[in-house]
UniProtKB/TrEMBL annotation, chains A, B:
Keywords: Lyase. This is 3-hydroxybutyryl-CoA dehydratase. Gene3D superfamilies: Hotdog Thioesterase. Coiled coil: none annotated. It comes from Caulobacter vibrioides (strain NA1000 / CB15N) (Caulobacter crescentus). Residues 20-111 form the MaoC-like domain.
Length: 150, 150
């Protein structure tokens, strides 16, 4: 398990297959509300307990992309971190995530193409031992640090 | 172009390949801030103008999953709308999205598997005529409306 790089981001030469980073985020009512405000997605299954209670989910669930965003936060702030350019993401949703769930978002370097500087990270979101979501992030990683400008 | 279904969501039998829905969302500083709070992704390229100005982007950009969430809002609230169960999403990011950009999020029914009740929607986010992001959403759609419980 690795932590954030002191400079804010890892460069291509510092990465190796198998490096892993994770963070834990508690899904709160406030996070769901903030996500609804950001995305303009006020689907009642996310924001209306009375409506959601009558659905197959039997209660409110978090937006799928909210759980996904915890993984993208790992990729963008820890591994490879700032400097990486997000090119793509695949996501498969396995289980709903609910208010009070503590989501572990984990990213693991799966492959590195040194020629194109493209790195694929395997991403997973877990609640307890259960994988609720997984997928792959593809990023381009800088080969050297950008010198700070005065 | 179709609008939200009066019941909140389309059922499988009401969908046909080619149906399209879209919405327009202006990316504001407030949306980016809300998304950062929801996701815990405070990557300075999104929230720190002074930092972002020194990167290859030459200024702050929106979180990739924020633009993606506008598309997922179309899928979850218009087409097929409430009742659809999100199974998966692929995303390819083509261009950064900036504060002040008006994003058109569009979803089009690409294929319907009546056996499994799985529907694939082609999703695109545009700024002006330019596709900034695209991908596919896979959802399971109910065959009939769930009767409201008393």
């Amino acid at each position: 398990m690795i932590g954030p790089h002191p400079t804010g981001g890892y460069i291509l030469e510092e990465l190796s297959v198998g490096m892993t980073a994770e963070k834990h985020v508690t899904v709160t009512e406030e996070r769901i509300q903030r996500f609804a405000e950001a995305s303009d997605d006020f689907n009642p299954v996310h924001v209306d307990e009375a409506f959601a209670a009558k659905t197959a989910y039997r209660g409110r669930i978090a937006h799928g992309l909210l759980s996904a965003s915890f993984g993208s936060a790992v990729v963008g702030t820890i591994l490879p971190g700032a400097g990486a350019i997000y090119l793509g993401q695949t996501l498969t949703f396995h289980k709903p995530v609910r208010i009070g769930d503590v989501v572990t978002a984990r990213a693991t370097v799966a492959s590195i193409d040194t020629e194109s500087a493209r790195v694929v990270l395997r991403c997973a979101a877990l609640v307890g031992d259960e994988v609720v979501m997984d997928g792959e992030a593809t990023v381009r990683v800088p080969r050297r640090r950008r010198p700070a400008k005065a």
